[in-house]
């Protein structure tokens, strides 16, 4: 063993990732690591490359150059499903839920996908449904529902749930597979200020209680700065800043990128 590898490898890491769409350089040699039990934020103005990097990490997009590692292993050629089996979970910007099922049933399904892989299909095919759940399953599902503040709506069908509640359910479902790292794509989009505060508090608690790592890809810069241990800032596919929230907040390059994006000519007067 090399003596250089004394630190624990990142749960997931992008190394030198480059993506081109035709003539457009969407990502240029981007590095980003999500260490164990940490919250890492990824922000940047519109078109900066955030969603592209998210797709590369989750295995939906193959980069032109660079590598993706999970727990120190190169997974660049592993499918999204294979990365999920290695402990990567993600949510989607638009929650994809089954209208006929209750909140609790969504979490049960996700739990069984991981813990009783073969059984879920026979249940679905035979109509065995949700009978006789094992004690472990009951306990785990109930504790996830409680952690996300969903106990009160556990038996409601998901159709008609407010967006904020659907997002919390998506996160409960993602956690039901016991991931090592959770990638969140714009988790606050469509939420009001109160729902966003609740989401931030819930996510912070989950990291502390479950030891899961989070990568937060967000438009809401304040949410990211408020929650993250480390923040990365992309602009036009290039990493322009990386550091603690305080460092990133004070970085003139970040101010220029955001002011440039929002105010055009006015950036010089800031
Ligand atoms: N499939 C694609 N084909 C061509 N160009 C693309 C594709 N996906 C993204 N792009 C371009 O790549 C650049 C980065 O896009 P990306 O969606 O990663 O940015 P983003 O930071 O997520 O932006 P936003 O904040 O608007 O979500 C943009 O210029 C975008 O138009
Ligand atoms: Mg995006």
Care to describe what's here?
There is one protein chain. The longest helix has 18 residues, at 193-210. 40% of the residues lie in helices and 22% in strands. It is α/β, with parallel strands linked by helices and 270 residues long. Helix 3 (103-115) crosses helix 4, helix 3 packs across helix 5 (135-147) and helix 3 (103-115) packs parallel to helix 6. Strands 6-7-8-3-9-10 form a six-stranded mixed β-sheet, sandwiched between helices. The protein has a four-stranded antiparallel β-sheet with strand order 2-1-4-5, covered by helices on one side. It contains ten helices and ten strands. The structure holds adenosine-5'-triphosphate and magnesium ion. Adenosine-5'-triphosphate (ATP) is lined by residues 21, 24, 26, 44, 46-52, 219.
Q: How would you briefly describe this protein structure?
A:
The protein is α/β, with parallel strands linked by helices and 270 residues long. It has helices at 50-58, 80-85, 103-115, 117-126, 135-147, 163-175, 193-210, 221-227, 245-250, 252-263; strands spanning 12-21, 24-34, 39-43, 65-70, 73-74, 88-90, 181-185, 213-217, 230-235, 238-243. Helix 3 (103-115) packs across helix 4 (117-126), helix 3 (103-115) crosses helix 5 and helix 3 (103-115) runs parallel beside helix 6 (163-175).
List the helices and strands and how they pair.
Elements: E1 12-21, E2 24-34, E3 39-43, H1 50-58, E4 65-70, E5 73-74, H2 80-85, E6 88-90, H3 103-115, H4 117-126, H5 135-147, H6 163-175, E7 181-185, H7 193-210, E8 213-217, H8 221-227, E9 230-235, E10 238-243, H9 245-250, H10 252-263
Parallel strand pairs: 3-8, 3-9, 6-7, 7-8
Antiparallel strand pairs: 1-2, 1-4, 4-5, 9-10
Helix pairs in contact: 3-4, 3-5, 3-6
The protein binds adenosine-5'-triphosphate and magnesium ion.
Magnesium ion is lined by residues 50-51.
């Amino acid at each position: 063993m090399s003596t250089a590898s004394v630190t624990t490898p990142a749960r997931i890491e992008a190394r030198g990732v480059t993506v081109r769409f035709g003539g457009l350089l969407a990502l240029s040699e981007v590095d980003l690591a999500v260490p164990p039990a940490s919250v890492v934020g990824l922000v940047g103005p519109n078109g900066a490359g955030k969603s592209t990097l998210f797709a590369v990490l989750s295995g939906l997009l193959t980069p032109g150059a660079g590598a993706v590692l999970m727990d120190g292993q190169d997974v660049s050629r592993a499918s999204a499903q294979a990365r999920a089996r290695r402990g990567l979970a993600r949510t989607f910007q638009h929650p994809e839920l089954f209208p006929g099922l209750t909140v609790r049933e969504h979490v049960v399904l996700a739990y069984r996908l991981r813990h009783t892989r073969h059984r879920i299909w026979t249940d679905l095919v035979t109509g065995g449904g949700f009978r006789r759940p094992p004690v472990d399953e009951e306990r785990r599902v109930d504790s996830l529902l409680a952690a996300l503040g969903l106990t009160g709506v556990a038996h409601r069908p998901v159709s008609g749930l407010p967006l904020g509640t659907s997002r919390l359910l998506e996160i409960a479902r993602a956690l039901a597979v016991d991931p090592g790292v959770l990638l969140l794509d714009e988790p606050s989009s469509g939420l009001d200020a109160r729902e966003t505060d609740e989401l931030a508090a819930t996510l912070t608690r989950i990291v502390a209680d479950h030891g899961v790592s989070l990568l937060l890809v967000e438009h809401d810069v304040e949410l990211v700065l408020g929650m993250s241990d480390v923040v990365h800032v992309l602009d036009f596919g290039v990493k322009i800043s990386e550091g603690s929230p305080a460092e990133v907040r004070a970085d003139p390059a970040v101010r220029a990128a955001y002011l440039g994006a929002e105010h055009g000519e006015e950036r010089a007067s800031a």
